[in-house]
Structure prediction request, 329 residues.
Amino acid sequence: MSRVLSGIQPSGQLTLGNYIGAMKNFVKLQETEECFFMVVDLHAITVPQEPAALSEQTEALAALYIAAGIDPSKASVFIQSHVRAHAELGWLFTTLANMGELERMTQFKDKAAGKESVGAGLFVYPTLMAADILIYHADLIPVGDDQKQHIELTRDLTQRFNSRFGEYFKTPEPYIHKVGARIMSLDDASKKMSKSNPNPGSFIALLDPIDVIRKKIARATTDSGMEVRFDPANKPEVSNLMSIYSHCADLTLPEIEERYQGQGYGSFKKDLAEAVISVIEPLQARYHEIRESGEIHQILKQGAEKASNIADRTLAEVKERMGFLLPRG
Ligand code: AMP
Ligand code: TRP
Prediction:
C-alpha cells in the first residue's frame, strides 16, 4: 500500500477544476491506498485573508472533501495548522532551498506578477509544501498539473536532505490525470480555471446554484466550427469541454466524439451541463447535510490525531539528524 498525501487551499470557492484535477483522484485512491487529505490554511495565508473568511472557508473545504466522497473511515482529513509539526519542518526546509530555485517557480511568478510588494511567505511557499509531503513519507501526491513543478522541487529537496544528513526520506511521485489535469477557463482556454479569476463566468464553483451552472456552460466560449473533436492545439475550448464531459459522465474522448458526430455544439453543451450537474447536485446536498450536522469537527479531530502521530515522529527524527540538541529528562 502506498501512502498518499495532498492538500487544497481554503481560499475562496472550490471549482470544478479542483474537483476534476485533484479531488476525483483523492476519492479513487482512498479505496486502495493509505490517504491523508488536508486543508492547507498555512498556505492560504501567503496571500492576505480576512480572518473570519479564513475560518469559514477552512470548515467549508473540509466539509466539501467529505461531500465529494472522501470517507473518513478510509482516509484521514485534517487541517494543516492543527498538526503543528508542518510549520516547524517547513521552517527547517527553508534552509535547504535556495533563492534561485524558488524564484523559478511559475506559481510564485504568476502570483507576484505586477505586485509592488510580495510577501516572503509566498516565496517560501514550496518549502512548506515539501514539508507537508515529506513529513508523512508520502509516496504519491495527487494534484493538478500546475503543482507538478512544486513536486519536482520537493524531489530535489529530498535528495539534498538525504545527501547532507544521510538517507532518510523517500522521493515522492506526482499522480496526475492524463486528460483533465488542467481544466481551463470557460471564457479563455489559454488560462486555467481558477477561483481567483475576477470573471465568475470563467469557472464553475462546486457550490454554484444549479441554474447558474447551466447558464455558464451555455455561455462557454467555443470556436466557430461545429465539430465535437478533441484537438487541444486547434480546438482548445471544445477540447476543454470534452475533458470536463469525459470526467463527469465517465466517457472516453472517442466515445464523446462518436456520440456528437455531425450534431454541432448545441446538444453537446446541453448534455455536458447535465453531466456536470449530475456530479455537483448530490455533492451539494451532502455538503449542506454535513455543515448542518456539525460532524466535521469530530472528523477533523481524529484526522489531526492520526496525522500528528506520524508528523511528530518525523520531525523528531529530522531534528536529530540535523544535529539539534533534543530535550532530555
Ligand atoms: P488550489 O486551489 O490551488 O489549492 O489547488 C488545489 C488542487 O486543485 C491542486 O492539486 C491543483 O493542481 C488542482 N487544480 C486547481 N485548479 C485546477 C484546474 N483548473 N485544473 C485541474 N486541476 C486544478
Ligand atoms: N500547493 C498546493 C496548491 O496550491 C496545495 C498544497 C499544499 C499541496 N501542500 C500540499 C498539495 C502538499 C499536495 C501536497 O494546490
